[in-house]
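Bench log, entry 3. Co-assembly request; chain sequences pasted below exactly as received.
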Amino acid sequence: GENVEQHPSTLSVQEGDSAVIKCTYSDSASNYFPWYKQELGKRPQLIIDIRSNVGEKKDQRIAVTLNKTAKHFSLHITETQPEDSAVYFCAADTDKLIFGTGTRLQVFP
Amino acid sequence: DAGVIQSPRHEVTEMGQEVTLRCKPISGHNSLFWYRQTMMRGLELLIYFNNNVPIDDSGMPEDRFSAKMPNASFSTLKIQPSEPRDSAVYFCASSKGPGQPQHFGDGTRLSIL
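Structure output for the full assembly:
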């Protein structure tokens, strides 16, 4: 079955810096890759997603890249702000979502 | 759009008791998912339904767990009998179909004493 690995597990950056979170997946049949943000005590919220026929997608300060050959995808957050502090999860979908283990991002003012 | 609605938000009960968690998916969504989240195991898929039919229950930990979806607007996850190790946050999510964005409810924080 699908296996998703996510790195790093924790990430601390200064406000205004960029943050990058990387994920790898194992099942080449996976074709949909969402990213979720989860604030403490709240539900995971979809922030951006990408499908296998696209290499990059951008939405304001966040972007996701996908390399199908290498089976990895990344989340990029530019000009980070304290409110970006949360746990971020990547996921890969064939017939069901398999989540990575999460990255705790802390943005220091 | 009311989003995915879960109840109760919090449940505290003694071990051995039956626990029933409820979920109302977003109207028009044909797929429904039950997840469990713990610090140790992260976010785990327990079971999912397409068009009210259970498709994959391989994540259900044991026979004490059962889930039903009697109609397109309601699903339950039942634990009987409950044990302290079942303590976790249980999320329900729904989507328009396989490979479509999933939207999560606010979760049920379950504590088994």
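The CA atoms of residues 39 and 110 of chain B lie 14 Å apart. The radius of gyration of chain B is 13 Å.
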